[in-house]
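Case study 2.
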Amino acid sequence: MTRFLVATVILLTGVPACADGTNRPSPESVYALYRSSVPVAPGDVEMRVHTATFDSIYGEKYNRENCVIAKDLFQDQPDITVRYWCERGYFLKTQNDLLHQSRIVT
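Prediction:
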């Protein structure tokens, strides 16, 4: 587990990104990593949870490949019951996300 976390931190922090929003890459070159939620009670609807954004200055191919690497690292952990996937573009909330957000208790 420690090795996985170290690899993830290196992967996610070793990439120059535009965290301050200046000179943001176009949405066509950006990828976002999502995961499904774990149903807590019978009848719960699966949620789409934003996990990471890959928006480096190195372009679409680089961002896509790193998103897929991160997806595989997360997905290949033992006993993982959620699924991970990449979507092109910046994170956008869907109507389904907004419906579920109102059920979150902090």
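The longest strand covers residues 48-54.
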